[in-house]
Amino acid sequence: MVLFDNMGSVTLYTVLVVTALLTYGVAGNPFAAALDFLKNLVLSPKHFIHFVAVLAILFLNKNEMRFERNIDFSANFTHLFKSIEGNFVANLQHTFENSTLTTGLVFIYVVCLQALLVSSIILYTYRSKSKQMYYATCYAIMINYLVAIPFYLFFPINEVWSYDPNVRFLMLEAFPKFETEYRPLSGLNNCFPSLHTSISTTLAILAVKSGNKKWAVLVCTCAALTIFSIFYLGIHWLIDMCGGLVLATFASVVGLKLAKLNLLRLPEQLPSRLFARAREEVK
Prior knowledge:
- By secondary structure, the chain is mostly helical.
- It has one domain (7-264).
- It is built from 15 helices and no strands.
- It has helices at residues 7-26, 30-43, 45-62, 64-69, 78-85, 88-96, 99-123, 132-154, 160-163, 171-174, 178-181, 195-210, 213-232, 238-261, 270-282.
- The protein is globular and about 55 Å long.
- Pfam families: PAP2_3.
- Residues 87-252 form the Inositolphosphotransferase Aur1/Ipt1 domain.
- Keywords: Membrane, Transmembrane, Transmembrane helix.
- This is Phosphatase PAP2 family protein.
- It comes from Paenibacillus terricola.
């Protein structure tokens, strides 16, 4: 079953899933949560700077392949991973392969990770006096990418399906144009560590730490399905997942500590105070 024709359909599904996740997470109007997030971006310099920093890291990751093409480094270590773990991915894929499961896991892999990331950032801002979990999420996401990018540049590992003839790239069954539409965002040899593992696990750890139990259950479930999908779809090696789990733990712990340290000592509502003064002066 074809789910995605192009990145436009991916974007549409992502918006719908974010809306559903926010409805569940805030137990109310998801648009109120989104508006509150935008309000914080406008009124809080601290909130704004952290968000822009995350966008800058995502932009850096998007351009990683351009940097890769400009460096003189041709080594590849895929054979090492294959020699260590053998047919783990092939055996798992052959055991569970099913057309309905394929469709569901392609949706999880392509849509749910980014939807969870956006929803978490908005949720941790909504009706919260302390934005510590929001800042922890921003720091943890930045750490994930900053650690992973050097590995992608200097420790290239090919996706399993492209190296092992016993593994199929099941992604194409639900997203036939994946190689032309989505591939520019993720290189074929950007496998270790698995960012799908590290980001989803990071969000799960932070969800548990947030104290929102129903949100934690949902995010942990999505993280488990995401990790299963990276093997089932024939993308990542088991070692990629292990690297992603280590990175997620490190990023989450450091992100929480940095949020507590309050490194960027800016007032949360500086502009609104200035606006209040301006209104008083006008009067």
